[in-house]
Amino acid sequence: MRVEESLQRGWSQRPAALPRPARMVLPSLKLQELIQEIRGAKTQAQEREVIQKECAHIRAAFREGDAPQRHLQLAKLLYVHMLGYPAHFGQMECLKLIASPRFTDKRVGYLGAMLLLDERQDAHLLITNSIKNDLSQGTQPVQGLALCTLSTMGSAEMCRDLANEVEKLLLRPSPYVRKKAVLAAVHMIRKVPELSDIFLPPCTQLLHERHHGILMGTVTLITELCERNPAALTHFRQVVPQLVQILRTLVISGYSAEHSVAGVSDPFLQVQVLRLLRILGRNHDESSEAMNDMLAQVATNTDTSRNAGNAVLYETVLTIVDIRSASGLRVLAVNILGRFLLNNDKNIRYVALTSLLRLVQSDHSAVQRHRPTVVECLREPDASLSRRALELSLALVNSSNIRSMTQELQGFLESCPVDLRADCASGILLAAERFAPTKRWHIDTIMRVLTTAGAHVRDDAVANLTQLIGGAEELHAYSVHRLYSALAADISQQPLVQVAAWCIGEYGDLLLSGSYEETEPLQVQEEEVLMLLEKVLQSHLSLPATRGYALTALMKLSTRLQGDNNRIRRVVSIYGSCLDIELQQRAVEYNALFRKYDHMRSAILEKMPLVEHGGPQDDEPGEGKEKPWSPKREVQSPTEPPTSNLLDLLDLLDSASGDAQPPPALDLMPGDSLLHLLDLPSKTPSLAPIPGLKVFDREGLQINLSFVRPPETPALLLITATASNTSKSDVTHFVFQAAVPKSFQLQLQIPSGDTVPAQGGPPITQVLRVLNPNKAPLRMRLRLTYNHFGQSVQEIFEVKDFPLDTWQ
Length: 808
What we know:
- Belongs to the adaptor complexes large subunit family.
- This is AP-1 complex subunit gamma.
- By secondary structure, this protein is α+β, with helices and mostly antiparallel strands.
- Among the domains are: 458-605; 690-806, Gamma-adaptin ear (GAE) domain (Immunoglobulin-like), CATH 2.60.40.1230.
- 55% of the residues lie in helices and 9% in strands.
């Protein structure tokens, strides 16, 4: 208490307080000093401290309204913004500086607007009137600042309000203003394509300019107009001769120090003119004819020793390919790409391979001349180059070079990177299926691929080879001997082991009889065959499916071998208690054959019958001769497409379950077969129309769904997915996948293709069969994967807004 009383007494006796002295405020730093302080900071904490103190000075200066120093403070704030620190409090100061009559203020104000404002903020609309006044009444430097700002952050509303002012500046006498006005017009067309009509008349006059900057901007503006307005495309086809003359002047005029780049006269302008000519000449004979001679001159006179010349040549090749050029000119373009393949620059070789891959369908014979060079590119250490070379090599395979190309590709398969083995193996198998000269060569090719890269082949490779061997009766002995030798040498390649086990089980009697006469006959004993199959069963490398093949082969050998079957019965009985359910069931059934149905075992385990073909069979070749054959005629295509159960594959819907069973095969018209059986006239019932649904639209690729519900099967919904492409580039490797909840059953039919042509070409379609017995509201998760504009794209999205008629 005494302490408190003394404190109170002291306060009461204290004399009146003197005036407090003014607090000292540290002077604000100049821009150069601020940069030195920030760069001199040794830690990030010191840097933040310096910036926070200076931002406080800047805020105080803005509040005090120090007009002469405002632009200096904003300049420091812009530097802080460039370092990534918040500077939004300077947006309104930008507007004040832009409205100032002083050029020093306008310069920093416009710079701040370009950095701190964008069309997502409403504050940017407040400078529209200031820009309009500066464009109409300002000096050339001020007009240039306003045009630059408009080109950088002008929104659609600003472009509509200021289009007339920019159009007037396009014909001003000053080249400085005209060049910036052209660039602002390009931005306006990109933002608001409907403003095209305003800029059509000035563009024709600007093509007479000699100033390269204005001319390049004009060509860019015309390109934007032609890409977005069909009427502009028709209008500017009249100036093709003028564009050709501009290009001729650049190519033939000779060296100009002002515009030369590595000895090439203004390659930037040449590239822009070539791109515009490509657009104007596409699908137009008259325009293409007018530019053919000039393109030939550019292709032959351009220096290729520097990268600038290669860039011009590449654009020339693209233009020749896109327009309706003469055949000789297209051959010249392919030869230029062939020279690119010999260039030391990897980027140029990659561009050449990509371009040749585009041309291989339209100019196959011309590209074939460069096949040796393409094959050499397979040995490139760069993975991207070897991948492109592999794709092009596979595209060049035909019936005349199948043997040599397959040999080269198989050599590449043995040493290629792991990530390319699957593509290489699949490509060889597809090429062999299409162009195989003989059955024996086809079998040898598939076996070599399985031996080299069996773990990387497609899932259907085993089925295709077994079907091929089964249909070639004269090659059964040859195949079983080859496969037995391959299996004895290596059991690690699972697809090869599966085919070998199947073949030994089917034709083991031919293996033991030695009916196939080789230069060095292979003598095989029954014990060796059984030991090899038991080795496969016991190997830790064998998959459950491989063990199933081996177990079935042993069972079939019980009817083909002459010795005692007790060894086979013991092996089969062991797997009756296997942990793998599939293998256990198979072993139990085989044991039952031995115990209860031994009298039927020989009939049940007969050789697989030959595949029946719809078309007439080719005659068998004579002894010692092999005649060319067509795999397409002998390989039977499946009559029913495989069921696509994507519920556990994609795991896209939370309610999806991997236990869902595949939907039953439902016919669209179930009554047709009965009517045909009774020989009664059938009448197709009318289908209720259901409105379609657009589910995807990006960069010209559209996916539309149309629906049909057969009246006889109300629980079935047939969905036709149609993919169309209005962009300028093809959509390749297109894959459409879908998943539904477990209460539904989904079946995807085979699509009509995997490439959606550009420019509104023929669309591709795919049918989805959805069974909805509970009439639940339909929802579906879709996954699209494709390549577009050189980029790999994957889109996953859910569709819920199906029409009520699709499920009610």
